[in-house]
Sequence to fold (663 residues):
Amino acid sequence: MTEQKRPRPGQLPRPTRPVRPAVGPRGPPRAGGGRGPVRPPHGPPAGAALRLGRPKPRLRLLSVLLTLVMAAFVIRLVQVQIVDATTLDAKADVNRYQPVQIAAQRGDITDRDGVPLATTVDAYDITADPYLFTPGQAKVSGAPQKAAKLLAPLLGGDAKTIAAQLATPRSRYVLLARGRSPQVWNQVKALQNKLAGQASEHGLPGLLNGVLAEPTSKRVYPNGTLAAGVLGFVNAAQRGAGGLEAEFDKELTGRPGTMTYAQSGGQMIPQAGIQEQAAVPGTDVELTLDRDIQWAAQNAITDQVKKSKADRGYVVVQDVRSGQVLAMADAPGFDPNDLADANPAALGNPALQDAYEPGSVSKLMSMSAVINQGVATPLTHVVVPPTLQRGDRVFHDDTDHGTEDLTLAGVLAESSNMGTIMATGQLGSTQAQADRVLYSYLKKFGIGDPTGLDFPGETPGILAAPQDWSTSQQYTIPFGQGLSVNAMQATSIYSTIANGGVRVTPSLVRGTTGPDGRFTPASAPRRTRVVTAATAKSVTQMLESVVGSEMGTGTMAQIPGYQVAGKTGTANRVDPATGRYHGYTSSFMGFAPADDPRVTVSCVIQNPTVGSYFGGSICGPVFKQVMEFALKTLQVPPSGAQAPQVPVTFDPGTPARSGKPAR
Fold:
């Protein structure tokens, strides 16, 4: 066999000449006759060169496809740029422009002289990006724990809690502390800069870079616990949640503004412009409270509640002529700046929210009804027996005594329950009629109705209709058991007598100052005549005998240089937990100067457990302390004369000078 040469690299092998078949040049005969060449059954002969198909059809197909694709792009472009341009542009603006709400400055609450009692200051919410504390980003092992140890003293939080927040997986935002002062944020920033400067030395490169701050505002109460029960408090969202903060939340909040700016990738684009609608600040509310008198009242009641180990106590100071509340203090109180440590039971305003049986201070209304109806005078003789039976119940006074010959003034001075029952029995020819007359006076004095302050959670007290009075209530309501009031209602009773028999609806707000700086005074209070001026004068003289007479129960309320009219009260207390009588409600209420009344002060102490529980003993001194301070603060001159001495007893052989004896 002949050896075939190998082709050189890059050279195709030469085709070999085909070997003809042995049958001859024309091959075997065809089926239909004749002969033809022999063809291989499939494909070209072995070793023959390949021939490509024509390219033009393929190019035409490719051109058609490209044309269709370009046409689709053009059609879509026309749709985007022309047909749907407006719609798509509006959709893009939604993502391009970022709206941000601007919080409005909450209005201040001030005392009558404009001194802030509640105001708003700049603050920061301290936040963090936990992602920046992960090992790959912080480049410090145990970054959350180390950072928390540094931040806890500054933020006033727990290091373990902060560390857990910083280690929150798959989170880019956590709130570490809310409403911190600018000073706190400055301390955090100073620590950030310090660590950045000393990174190489301490191995803490940018440890606190993930700590950020969001500007916000914070409600603060500059005087701490002062008037907290009246002011109330705000919640975490800086919305009123108690007291006047809740009552005037809409006015104080104002109207928030908006700012819209262009952004890309979360960053503001200053060149794109900013649209801003300014926030409207809240309205300032000016109260009738006098901060100094409020301070004196709060100190006095706090000290006495502690000394008596009582459940609570409250003092109300009211301007006799205008009805304005000058002070409303309670104890124990709370600090609205620190609600986390406050006792939940102390977060209200008990002077308006506690309903209690007033006891003997309520006798003022009974005596006013008796005198105003003309059935008796302060000198009317009342023979008070050792005991008094009405129906199936036997009544007696707080202290045992024999038969006493008292005037009506003496009944009030000695706070005789039996004498009061006997006197009010003269209001009608039957007991049912007497009940209806007494009830009408109680309603005119404001018992059983809201005070008019519209304070959140205020109780109107309880006063049943006379036809619903039980046999016992027919005789206990005249001396203050069987009905309930709040301290403001009780104070208003005494202010009504001090104001010549005209009841002025109490008020806590003097006016408001809007964002434009214009002051709008509060509406004039409603005035209602309850008894005649002559009746009010007679009852005032009777109240003076309570304080000035040796037989009176309120001698500890005497104030040198001033005539004082007042009344003590010691009532059985209904325990709110059991609904049964347990302990006592002690009180003293009065006004001064009695010859030209200016100020009414009331003191109520619930369930004193140490020392005396009589109202004259524990509330009389509180009344004196607060009243003296108020008179000096308001620069009220002393009385011009001695208090008139109204007889409190009578000689059995002497006929009554006026009115018919009550027996």
